[in-house]
Amino acid sequence: MDSVGLSSADDWRKMLARARKLGVFTGVDTRAYPRDFAGLARAHRELSRIRTTCPMPRPLEWPVAEEFLTGRGELEWHG
What we know:
Blueprint (H helix, E strand, L loop, with lengths): L8 H8 L22 H10 L13 H9 L9
């Protein structure tokens, strides 16, 4: 729905034009935006099809993860 501060499709187009590699709408019908409520479902479906560029890292063994977490100043850790 239209609301104060909601970016228009043209605003999003300008932002996407600044993308370094690829800037595209994902799941959005720009003709219906912002009333394109099915866009959320389409975006979810389209995002699930994106191929990852880097594989997920392997899980850490607990002692390695614990050492990493206890060394982080921004975290309060109670082991």
